[in-house]
Amino acid sequence: MTLDPIDKKLLFLLQSDSKKTTKELSLKLNLSVTAVYERIKKLEREGIIDKYVVLVNRSKIEKGFVVFCHLKLIQHTKEFLTKFESEVIQLKEVLECHHVSGDYDYILKIVVKDMEAYREFLVTKLTTLQHIGSTHSTFMISEVKNTTVVDI
Q1: Are 71 and 131 spatial neighbours (Cβ–Cβ below 8 Å)?
Q2: Start and end of every HTH asnC-type domain (predicted)?
Q3: Would you give the distance in Å from CA 71 to the centre of its chain?
């Protein structure tokens, strides 16, 4: 599907605030409510709009301690990778898990209450997963930029 300038602007508006009504969007795009509705449905059908979510202020729910954990597996067999990935998906503290190239195999973004909670997570959950060779944790000092808006 080729996105025209109106689709791109519509996606920007929805990424910035997905609670905008089709009427509000129609005024910003200079289109009818029906036209905006149909465009949104088309973007959803095509899989360009994947899902709608609520972004939670982590510090308000005592999950403001952010850790980036670099992780190395003991082997790189398909079996080890698959097993690790299926286990890490189950850890609610892990918001993101990326299989990467370089010195480490995975980078995890983990959120917990504080250092004590991270230590507990590390000792009782993460390091109990099979096939982990080593970990290296980096702690967020401050968040300079965090956006979910993808430039189209």
Answers
A1: no
A2: 3-66
A3: 18
